[in-house]
Write a structure and sequence with these properties.
By secondary structure, the chain is α/β, with parallel strands linked by helices. It has 3 domains: 12-54, Orthogonal Bundle (434 Repressor (Amino-terminal Domain)), CATH 1.10.260; 76-180 and 305-336, Rossmann fold (3-Layer(aba) Sandwich), CATH 3.40.50; 182-301, Response regulator (Rossmann fold, 3-Layer(aba) Sandwich). Helix content is 38%, strand content 15%. The chain contains 12 helices and 12 strands. Strands 2-1-3-4-5-11 form a 6-stranded parallel sheet, with helices on one face. Helix 11 (269-275) links the parallel strand 8 and strand 9.
Amino acid sequence: MIPSSQTQRVTLRDIARRLKVTHTTVSRALRDSPQISPALREKVRRTANELGYRPDPMLAALAHYRHASTNGPICSELAWINVWPNPKELRKRREFDLYWKGAFAEAERCGFRLEEFTPDKDMSMARLKQIFRTRNIHGLLLPPKAPDLIPDWGDFPWNEFCVVRFGSSLKHPGTHLVASDQMSDGVIAFDNIRNLGYRRVGLVTSQIHSKNPVRFAAGYLLGNLKVPEAERMPPLILSQASGREDEKALLAWLKNARPDAIFSDLPSLREMLGNVGYRVPRDVAIAALSVLDGNADAGIDQNSEEIGRVAVQVLVSLINRNERGLPKVRHEILIEGRWVDGSSMPPKKKVLPVAPKNP
């Protein structure tokens, strides 16, 4: 008779005796190991539920410690798939380069080696699939895509791999993702700009440079709700189809909205302001969504290296649980950035009230 769950914990061996299999088979089945047939995996899960089996959290923690000790030996590989037309351009973006560095360091700490793969005419996705199978690579990282690129994944068998994306620029495959918390960053930036003494804080973004500017713009708009209505202004969303037309729109917005500070994700903003006769920071101060790539030294540090580290932590956890393929419920892990002071947005000098002269 199987012990009651109220008096004694049901073990893997109890389930194994009921099914007349080994406890190792039960363990593998509960971890969805492909070594166990789908029918037997389902039978083991059903029996475990009937008997009231619950994993022992202390034993699970010990097993995890044994398999993921700090600075463990390299035991397997993870793949970083770079589909940029010119692969070298990806890591010229300082944010993305730190994704790689954080991911590489965390992979080594967890006992993995991270290797970059660059599909092209000489290495198709079909060929890549065979390489991964041959080298027993189960974990894949998908960095952000190049602007305007729609990757052709063909019939790549995502169901065979554990996959994590960076950011939301890649819409397919629909895997778990790790990204910067741009909405929170927008609020952080707005509050810090106000604390520096600026009162008319504008937002400039574009339809092309940021296909989905909603998140950080939403943070900016949330910040705007905290200030008097007279100090609010509409954001400027440029088309970037024509530099001349964008500069004309920018100049009209500057004259109408009269911002004393601008928050933006456009690296070209500083040059555009110069072209229409505005000096930074004398005429208008600027802060960037990314101080690494935004051509302004004030703004948000998105903690990109941490994003890389967390992406690997999520991927390794998927591998340990053997959770392959596209999830039914997609998870997003958002990493909050931090404000960085800089010369492009110095503290604004406060004008002291002039005392009336004695008559």
